[in-house]
Every structure is written in C-alpha cells, then in structure tokens.
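Below is a complete specimen:
___
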Amino acid sequence: MPEPRVVTMTVDGRTRTGTAEPRLLLSDFLRHELGLTGVHVGCEQGGCGACSVRIDGRLVLSCLTLALQAEGATIQTVESLAGSGELHPIQRAFQARHGLQCGFCTPGMLLAAQVLLEETPDPTDEQIREHLSGNVCRCTGYTGIVASVREAARLLREEGP
C-alpha cells in the first residue's frame, strides 16, 4: 500500500496542507481533510457537476481528480464567492431569480456560471444552457437557473466582478 503524502495547495486564497493517500479524490480531500463542505459529491462519476471546483482558473470535476494532482495548484470552491462577507452578484441573482431549490447542485452551478460570465459577459439563453449542460439539477427545470445567470450577467456588467 503506497504511503500517504503531504499535499499543499492554495484553496480560496489560503495555503492549505493535508495528507492524502494516492487514490484519494480531490472532492474527498476538500470535504474531509480541509472541511470545505460546499464541494458536494453527487454521482462520483463526473456526470452531475455538483463537485465542480476551479483549479488554476479551469472548471474541474473534483470527483474525477486525485488530491495529489492538485499539489501546488490554486483551487477555488464555492465558499470563496462570498469571501467579503457579502453575497457575490451570482449568488444574489440565484437567490432573486429562484435558481435554486434543494441547493445540492448549486455550488457547481455557481462556479460554472462564474466561468461562463468571465468568458461571455452577455450570454444568450442557448449559451447558458450549453455551458451549464454538465451540471444536473433535479429540482428546478432550469428555467430559474437560466434566468439567474442572465440576471447575474446584468449585475456583473453594472457592478463589476
């Protein structure tokens, strides 16, 4: 059995260190080793998007990434969105436009929306649906989610990131 290794990464702006066996998934490392429970674990097969995080700016499924692969990386979880203590415009838009119900898919949806809006500040509904297609929501029917991303785009254009 391979020995656990020390892993150091920057998570939500803080240098964090923990121990990981070679087969430990990043989602489990973030949740259990670092206590960041905003990273949700749904299907554990990369099909639902609930475990999405950003690694060095790229949207990644943490259930398909080993913790050791993130050594030295910069990771952003959903917890960082309201880092200043106030809701991020994307969070406010999801709240205002009913983009969430049970909340299970919400962390992945919020980070996916953030990536989309950085790349495309004024997306069409079709672009929103296409970009969020890797994130499964079983509650909302996506109408509120699309409206939320549209509202977030408006807020970000008006207020800035």
Summary: The mean pLDDT is 94. The CA atoms of residues 105 and 146 lie 14 Å apart. The chain has five helices and five strands.
